[in-house]
Amino acid sequence: MSQTGSIPTVSIYGIPFSKLTMKETVKVLQEAVLSKQTPHQVITANPIMVMAALENPAIMEVMQAAELIVPDGTGVVWAANYCGDPVAERVPGFELLHELLRVGENYRWGIYLLGSTPEVIQETAVRLQQQYPAIRIVGYRDGYFGPAEDEQVIASIREAAPDLLFVARGADTQEPWIHKHKDALQVPVTMGVGGSFDVISGKTKRAPMLFQKLRLEWFYRLLREPSRAGRMLALPKFAVKVMRDKENVTKVR
């Protein structure tokens, strides 16, 4: 499983986005878990992350090194289509997490949850175990730890030996942390899941179906959290940049 090998990708500003459907994505990751060959980092990326990578070479390096990047954001799907090299469909990270757990029930996969607050992570573990009784929650802990505690956290995850590791930390630390430690963690599939634990635990609500169907989940989140306005400015900036750079967006860098 590699971005240059069996997975068809489209390069958006040098970031290789998977062209697989949700179903195909789940199958690839299922095979990755069952083969247990090498650790795979899955990034569910959106235009905000693409813009951050263009501004920060360290973030770009992390994204280009990931084994699989799925088009989570509607803007990415639009950009690939607009530039004439479309992806199959949007693959939202929240739904991918649930699809993997559904498959995991067939194999009694072990799941480790890392991130968010102690209350949220505990409630997430309880609810996921209720929803998917055949999976094994082999461990969980909150995301409030610094570099000094990395070794201890990694040791506890390795001891639990999960098949899937879901990580929910700050946007600036989540993917870099997974990238830095994936070889030490030795988990077949590790995926950054952003605010998914907040939704699963009931702390926040997912956008209503109407917003989801209109692909306006980002707008719903902005209405609920106006403090996100600064980050959200990356969305129109991304759209304008893609329109201006149309001929060069999908060129492999």
Short characterization:
Pathway: Cell wall biogenesis; teichoic acid biosynthesis. It catalyses: UDP-N-acetyl-alpha-D-mannosamine + N-acetyl-alpha-D-glucosaminyl-di-trans,octa-cis-undecaprenyl diphosphate = N-acetyl-beta-D-mannosaminyl-(1->4)-N-acetyl-alpha-D-glucosaminyl di-trans,octa-cis-undecaprenyl diphosphate + UDP + H(+). This protein is an alpha/beta fold and 253 residues long.
Structural class: alpha/beta
Proportion of residues in extended strands: 15-25%
Uncertain stretches of 5 or more adjacent residues? none
The main pleated sheet reads as: 6 strands, parallel
Percent range of helical residues: 40-55%
End-to-end gap: 21 Å
Number of helices: 13
Oligomer: single chain
How many beta-strand runs?
Answer: 8
Shape: globular
Order of helices and strands: EEHEHHEHHEHEHEHEHHHHH
InterPro entries: TagA_TarA, WecG_TagA_CpsF
EC number: 2.4.1.187
Keywords: Cell wall biogenesis/degradation, Glycosyltransferase, Teichoic acid biosynthesis, Transferase
Enzyme class: transferase
Throw out a few tags for this protein.
alpha/beta, transferase, N-acetylglucosaminyldiphosphoundecaprenol N-acetyl-beta-D-mannosaminyltransferase activity
Walk me through what this model shows.
By secondary structure, this protein is α/β, with parallel strands linked by helices. It has 13 helices and 8 strands. The protein has helices at residues 22-35, 47-55, 57-65, 74-82, 93-107, 118-131, 150-160, 174-185, 196-200, 209-213, 217-224, 229-232, 234-244, and strands at 9-12, 15-18, 40-45, 68-71, 110-115, 136-141, 164-168, 189-192. A 6-stranded parallel β-sheet has the order 4-3-8-7-5-6, with helices on both faces. It has a two-stranded antiparallel ribbon with strand order 1-2. Strand 1 and strand 2 form a beta hairpin. The longest helix has 15 residues, at 93-107.
